[in-house]
Automatic annotation (TrEMBL):
PANTHER family for this protein: DNA ADENINE METHYLASE
SUPFAM superfamilies cross-referenced by the UniProt entry: S-adenosyl-L-methionine-dependent methyltransferases
GO MF term list: S-adenosyl-L-methionine binding; sequence-specific DNA binding; site-specific DNA-methyltransferase (adenine-specific) activity
Entry keyword Methyltransferase: yes
Protein's GO biological process: DNA restriction-modification system; methylation; mismatch repair
Keywords, in A-Z order: Methyltransferase, S-adenosyl-L-methionine, Transferase
Protein name, UniProt field: site-specific DNA-methyltransferase (adenine-specific)
């Protein structure tokens, strides 16, 4: 029997953005690796997802488990602003997205491209003095631009330059789902009682305790130079960052928290690369199959392994 946060109002929230490394395809695998007591009771006392990204894991768990407390965070301030806008102003957001959709869909391919770059330029100009802490109307406008760019840019990527400016080129779409009104409302309901903050994953450490389930989905360690995705934020998540994260994982494990962590598997390209095997040698490491792109050429794409680390 599935237990929902909203038993009298069934909902089925899905990620509202295209997001690199999204976990939709791995939800069943991740669920299979949940602690047995959670799978049996269908309840989670405290849930933490400090690299929330597209939120596929949280949305799935919020539908199928009773989460008593949830804490979602990410270092990407545009992403977190958009989460909070959907949480608090879903109808206003949907209204603005409808405007973008109606205008975009009525134009020729060349006019769509011009419109995309106009919105991207406006979005970047606002960086200079935009107040991320105040102003519901301005936040709705910015979140709508963020979603529009995500739905119409090349491959739904999020990338910024050294100035923090969004620099992904325009994509080519016949009928992009810019205004998914029903899902926006479902996501808003799923986020109703959730704490959502723009923060480094380390900021959640003091809140995590023995009653917590933590899912960590950090920027993946690149398998090849071609697969390296630069620019999620202005700071890089390099090998030193991965090591720092492994120490965080050990500390919350010592607190008694149940933790799962996803990352790339270096052994896809180098069987002798034991980077993660060494970092997480004290824990269970599972290799799970996923469809990912590790090469720009189509014939080099397909199923590869990822790692899933468990401390229970």
């Amino acid at each position: 029997m599935q237990v929902s946060l909203f038993p009298n109002e069934p909902i089925d929230p899905k990620p509202f953005l295209k997001w690199a490394g999204g976990k939709t395809q791995l939800l069943e695998t991740i669920e299979n690796h949940l602690p047995s007591e959670i799978k049996e009771s269908k309840e989670i006392d405290k849930y933490f997802e400090p690299f929330v990204g597209g939120g596929a894991v949280f949305f799935y768990l919020s539908t199928n488990y009773n989460i008593k407390e949830a804490y979602l965070s990410d270092i990407n301030k545009e992403l977190i602003l958009t989460y909070n806008v959907i949480k608090n102003y879903p109808k206003k957001l949907s209204h603005r997205l409808k405007y973008y959709y109606d205008y975009y869909i009525s134009k020729s391919e060349e006019e769509r491209k011009e419109y995309y770059y106009k919105i991207r330029n406006d979005f970047n100009k606002e960086l200079i003095d935009f107040d991320y802490k105040r102003g519901s109307y301005n936040h709705v406008r910015r979140a709508s631009k963020f979603i529009f760019l995500n739905k119409t840019c090349f491959n739904g990527l999020y990338r910024v330059n050294s100035k923090g400016e969004f620099n992904v080129p325009a994509g080519r779409y016949k009928n992009p789902l810019i205004n998914d009104k029903e899902n926006i409302l479902n996501v808003s309901k799923a986020l109703k009682n959730v704490t959502i903050v723009n923060a480094n994953y380390l900021d959640s450490e003091d809140l995590i305790d023995e009653n917590s389930l933590v899912y960590l989905d950090p920027p993946y360690r690149p398998l090849t130079n071609a697969s390296s995705f630069e620019g999620y934020s202005k700071s890089d998540f390099n090998d030193d960052s991965q090591i720092e994260l492994s120490n965080f994982y050990k500390r919350i494990s010592n607190k008694g928290a149940k933790a799962l962590l996803s990352n790339s598997d270096p052994k896809n390209v180098d069987p002798n690369d034991n980077f993660f095997d060494d970092l997480y040698s004290d824990f269970n490491i599972y290799r799970v199959s996923a469809k990912r792109y590790i090469n720009s050429k189509g014939d080099k794409r397909g199923e590869i392994n990822e790692i899933l680390v468990s401390n229970f």
